[in-house]
Specification:
With 490 residues, this protein is α/β, with parallel strands linked by helices. Helices cover 48% and strands 9% of the residues. It has a seven-stranded mixed beta sheet with strand order 6-5-7-8-9-10-11, sandwiched between helices. Helix 8 packs across helix 9 and helix 10 crosses helix 11.
């Protein structure tokens, strides 16, 4: 449609200016109609080939200034389950001098006409057509299934780092996705420059809160990944269930919106949650993975689907118990039908195998709740079924609560032995606290002595300068007196 809005003087056609006005108008109309029809055919073809991967046409908006550049991206969104008819989206990029995490925003329009109204007249939209990336470039740690999937969600400007790769000098100023195992986190954090660690995006399963707090990264972005990648190079499958058709993947933190936009680039859902809602969602996933893996380990060879189908009562009771413990100790409020919702997710990944892995990050959290309850003098284990299953499998710490749940798996000798271990642990903990207090006092005393030495050096230097100043003044007075005497003699 560009030519229909161009003046005759700007037309690239030879001899156009020599034609009559009516001929010029007819030619412009015919060219416009042809281009419009070809464009509609092309749009239709592209729309049929991808769910969220339509074309992007962009042009500077009419409302531009030297200090703020705004661009509009035209992108058709085909009809989906929740949308009967295609819609048109305009992605707005605000100031270029803003941080990348705040650079992109999205507004949905019902049709291309409203898009053109927002962007300016059709002639202005048609000028300076260019392609713009809607996904912030990122650094991705991990070249496995999830890492490669993250790269495929981008626009080809991402950098993938493997275990022994150094930090690149030209690393993109965007999110830093960590798609590695939990035991590799120390090495990853150490590799990232301190001024970029606020850009880390953690995607691991399990209880990361205490670890991130210890590293000073309690406010780092976290993503609860519910999509699955069957094998390297495969497209991810979204974690959509019959009870959560909107999807379960969620994010919180500085780069949460950027992560959501990246996932949506492959048609994956992602909710951006506040801290309170994200914590509840995080604990739900922790409860799911700890329960299904533990119950599956009690029945060798069972998949997640087998546990959901054949041991529904067993795993539901365990999930309810762990949810009650979390609510009691953490003050987290869960939504209704938690076991049913988590079983619905299990059906979407029914082929997954079961095994108790990364104990410290998963089941270890609930084992610690049991241990703390015992050391604090409580008479009941808040996670008795969980502790019983661990004792049955010989995993984790056996807590000697003399009541139902797992007593049948433990002999009196084992209970006595565990009691002695816990007593030694408490003594050792007290000794470590005393050593920590002693070290702190020593450090305080050392800093005090250093301050005193510095003050002494400062005073000595000041005294020396004062003495030097007085000596110079006396010398100057003596010189002046000698000069005066010489003048008198002359």
């Amino acid at each position: 449609c560009c030519f229909s809005c161009l003046p005759p003087s700007s037309s690239p056609h030879t001899g156009f200016n020599t034609m009559s006005s009516s001929s010029q108008c007819a030619l412009r109309v015919s060219i416009s109609a042809s281009i419009f029809l070809l464009g509609m055919i092309w749009v239709s073809t592209m729309t049929d080939h991808a769910k969220y991967e339509g074309f992007r046409v962009a042009a500077p908006l009419a409302r531009q200034s030297t200090s703020s550049m705004t661009r509009a991206f035209y992108k058709p969104i085909p009809a989906t389950e929740g949308c009967a008819t295609p819609k048109t989206a305009i992605f707005v990029e605000s100031r270029r001098d803003q941080h990348p995490s705040q650079r992109f925003s999205t507004q949905i329009f019902e049709n291309s006409r409203r898009f053109r109204r927002a962007a300016g007249s059709s002639s202005r939209v048609a000028q300076n057509i260019l392609t713009v990336n809607a996904v912030a470039p990122a650094v991705i740690f991990g070249g496995g299934r999830v890492g490669q999937a993250l790269k495929e969600m981008g626009e080809g400007q991402d950098v993938i780092l493997k275990r022994h790769d150094p930090w690149p000098e030209d690393a993109p100023e965007g999110p830093i996705f960590v798609a590695t195992r939990n035991d590799a986190l120390d090495a990853v954090i150490e590799k990232v420059p301190e001024d970029r660690r606020e850009d880390l995006v953690f995607m691991q399963n399990g209880m990361l809160g205490p670890y991130l707090k210890e590293k000073g990264l309690e406010n780092a972005t976290q993503v609860l990944v519910y999509f699955a990648v069957a094998k390297l190079g495969d497209d991810p499958t979204d974690g959509v269930t019959d009870m959560n058709p909107e999807g379960l993947t969620a994010a919180n933190g500085k780069w949460a919106k950027a992560a959501a936009e990246r996932f949506k680039n492959k048609g994956l859902s992602c909710k951006v949650l506040n801290k309170e809602d994200f914590d509840a969602a995080m604990f739900e996933k922790l409860i799911w993975i700890s329960s299904f893996m533990l119950v599956g380990a009690r029945h060798p060879g069972a998949t997640v689907g087998d546990v959901e189908k054949n041991y529904t009562g067993e795993v539901s009771n365990l999930m309810t118990e762990l949810a009650d413990a979390v609510s009691k100790f953490e003050g987290v409020k869960f939504g209704p039908q938690l076991p049913e919702r988590l079983c619905a997710y299990a059906r979407s990944v029914a082929h997954f195998p079961t095994a108790v892995k990364e104990f410290e990050w998963r089941n270890g959290y609930f084992n610690e709740l049991s241990k703390e309850a015992y050391k604090n003098g409580q008479k009941e284990d808040p996670c008795s079924t969980h502790s019983g299953y661990l004792a049955e499998l010989g995993i984790g710490k056996i807590i000697p609560f003399p009541f139902k749940g797992y007593k049948e798996y433990i002999t009196e000798e084992e209970m006595q032995q565990q009691d002695e271990i816990l007593t030694k642990f408490e003594i050792k903990r007290d000794e470590e606290n005393e050593k920590r207090i002693k070290r702190k006092k020593e450090m305080d005393e050392k800093r005090k002595q250093e301050r005193e030495r510095a003050e002494s050096v400062r005073k000595e230097k000041q005294l020396h300068e004062e003495q030097g100043s007085k000596a110079r003044q006396l010398q100057m007075a003596k010189t002046a007196a000698e000069e005066e005497t010489k003048r008198s003699l002359r």
